[in-house]
Automatic annotation (TrEMBL):
It comes from the Eukaryota. It comes from Xylaria curta. This is Uncharacterized protein.
Amino acid sequence: MRNTASGSLKQGADLRAPGYANIFVLGDAGDLQPPQAVNADTQTRHLMTQLHSYFGGEPIKPYVFDPEKTQMALTIGRDRGTGQIGSWQPWSLLIWFLKGRHLGTNNAGEYAKGDAGTMGKAWPK
Ligand SMILES: Cc1cc2nc3c(=O)[nH]c(=O)nc-3n(C[C@H](O)[C@H](O)[C@H](O)COP(=O)(O)OP(=O)(O)OC[C@H]3O[C@@H](n4cnc5c(N)ncnc54)[C@H](O)[C@@H]3O)c2cc1C
C-alpha cells in the first residue's frame, strides 16, 4: 500500500487506495503529487464532485492532473516573495499580494467553518 520510494500511500487514478473500493487517499499522505496544499485542495475538490456517483454505486471519474506543472509561492520576509507557476516566475509583489499579506488568515473563518479551501475558494456543492 506504500510507495517504497517516497513512503507515501499509493493512490490509484481515481484516488482510491489500490485494491480497496472504499478507501480514498488525499493530500500529503498520497504519492500522486508533491506534498503541497494546492494539490491536497484539488484532490479533495475532485473527490467531492464524485461522492454522489460513489454513493450511488456508479463509476467515478479519474483525477486528472499535469505532473509537469509546478505551482509554488514562497514568502520572503514581510513584503517580498518568489515562486513558480509553470514556467513563469511570478513577481515578488504579486506573491506578497496573494499570500504574504495575510498568509491565509483572512480566510481562516471560512476555512474553519468548512465553507472554503485553499485561498478561500468555496468548496464545490
Ligand atoms: C512550513 C510549511 C509551509 C508550507 N507552505 C506551503 C505553500 O506555500 N503552498 C503549498 O501548497 N503547500 C505548502 N505547505 C504544504 C501544506 O501545508 C501541505 O501540503 C498540506 O497541509 C497538506 O494537507 P493534508 O490535509 O494532506 O495534510 P495535513 O495538513 O498534514 O493534515 C493531516 C492532519 O492529520 C492529522 N493526523 C496525523 N496523524 C493522525 C492520526 N493518527 N489520527 C488523527 N489525525 C492525525 C495531523 O495532525 C494533521 O492535522 C507547507 C508546509 C509547511 C510545513
